[in-house]
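A reminder before we start the practical. When you read a complex entry, don't treat the lines as separate problems. The point of joint prediction is that each chain is placed relative to the others, so the output describes one connected object in space. Small molecules and nucleic acid strands, if listed, are placed in the same frame. In the example below there are two entries. Take a minute to note the order of the lines before looking further.
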Amino acid sequence: MKKITQVFIDSYRMARKDLLDFFRDRMQLVFFIIMPIFMMIMTGFIFPTENSLKDIPLGIANQDTGQMSTTMTEVFAEMKTSDGDTIFSVQTYSDAAELKDAIKAQKINGGVFIAADFSRAVEQNQQASVTIIPDQSNPQIAQVLTQLLQQVIAGTSTNVAQAKVDEMIKLTAAANPQLAQVNAEAVIQPIQSAIDDLIPGKPNYFQFVAPGIMAMIVMMSVMTGLAVSVSREREAGTLDGLLIAPVSRLSIILGKAFSQTARGMIQGMVVLLLAILIFGVHVYGNWLIMILLLFLGVFAFMGIGILVSALASAQESAMTIMMTFQFPMMFLSGVFFPIQQMPQAMQYISKVIPLTYEATALRKVIVLGAGLSSVWTEVLILFIVGAAMLAIAVPTFRRVITR
Amino acid sequence: MEYIIEVKNLVKEFKGFRAVDDISFYVKRGEVFGFLGPNGAGKSTTIKMLCTLLRPTSGSGRVAEHDIVEDPALVREHIGLVAEKIILYDRLTALENLMFFGSLYHLPKKEIADRAKKWLQTLEMGKWQDKPVGTFSTGMKQRVNIARALLTQPEVMFLDEPTLGLDPQTSRSIRDFIKDLHAHGVTVILTTHIMPEADELADTIAIIDHGKIIALNTPQNLKLSIQKENATLEDVFLQLTGRDMREETHNNVPSARGGHMFGGRSRIR
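Here is the predicted structure of the whole assembly.
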């Protein structure tokens, strides 16, 4: 018992020294904060969502002179995002060919062509058509734009239909009184869909990506931090100073693990605070569960870090080994892209990556407000992975550190 | 016990290369033991084994009455090491460094602080005690490094080229300091490439080459052993080890590749 207490006291001293050493390095400290900010900004802003699209140049060629087409083009020009920004900045062209030329010249990101017979077709109870010309060089914008335009057109179409059905009902009601009870809306759209959100408001990409980035940064901080820290001491020669002291090997590695855990947790919290303060992310779940999950994440990756630190002779090789591990993890764990979008084979791989469970559990708690009962499988998996890795890593470290 | 270090048939192999080849020697308590040899001869490997930083492939060694393989933790309580690389954290101040390393020896905090300040004063580093070590010159660092090694009042001090790369003033003060240690009964194991330094300080000198001890005697007797008038230790050294420069590289030797690897059969806890 006394021995175990001594191990912990010694590891506390090691950890304290490491943190003191770390916080003295201003440059490192600055990047410690800046790195997560970059990560958030990049991942958050590069993926277009409806909200992030504004003032997209849209070309409209309206050859029709009727009331309806005019109204529709006005709707395009006045569409606003939920933040109140105008979505399209409308430019006028004379025909479809001109629109296509403008897209080729990248003056506009899409075009709407309304033919001269549009209003007449509507009036004469024929099917009228509107042509959307997307900019295929920019598939993501094209997709969002097409979707929005189709919505507007479908909306207008529904209005026309309603007016027409109303008229039809009125005309035939005299002959068939039962028809007078019929609601035009129910004829045009017999089924309506309703959305019942688990959480209020519209989820944004940050909400999706913040838990993942938190998980990832904690992982990187622990794995790379541990390995680099040990190999740096080895290179500098200070590791020999620790090894010739009458302290257990276990307390050396535990000390390193503690200091890296502290760093990982601090960085995870930095990400969370940034997400909340700058990117408007809201934590719906319990903070304690979230912190527990972060902690488990650290625990799960610690063994790998120790193993690499035991095997890598120099900082450079430690970094290279870590990158090899971390890169596939970043992309396959569902931090940036939903796992469901991946090919089946990749989904299987993602199932064996601990980061997947960390990110999933954090996302459940932060975005959906899940409780412990919903994340216990992830908790169990992370704990088992961590314990198994430590069971391999600690004896390896103790053996390898003295040749 | 008369001998504080006993080495019997010590061997260290790195993947087939014998860095230390079956050496045996004894060091008397309180003496300054000079360990000389060309680069790559096996000096540092031997010292690392005695400091419990490397596991011997075979053979045995006892330091301060404890076996280096069986009881490494007990050996560690009695030794101090000044290695080729300075064992200090650059971003910590001199005093913080000493306090940290002292705490690993489980001494009372007050005791460590008193000793640290005393040694820093003795080594004329007192006014720099609260400055980060990274801002120091090599000589200043080495003085703090020596203070670190002495903090725990070791019975055996291993000094691996302590004056390497230092100016004459600092070298002089470190040599005086070694004499001082000697006067206080501390056993010193000193490796150096500076022959006059070994001649001046050492009571006994071992010359090691290709992993074997090829001469072991007092500096006086060594100088008398060769046929030359007013022979210096350098003459002895060159006659024994030859004038060839050592250019072979040993990729398997950790000190040569600066890293480490798996190896060694016995286990050190």
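Discuss with your neighbour: Chain B touches chain A at residues 51-55, 72-74, 76-77, 79, 81, 83-92, 96, 100-101, 103-106, 132, 148, 254, 257-264, 267-269 (CB under 8 Å). What might explain this?
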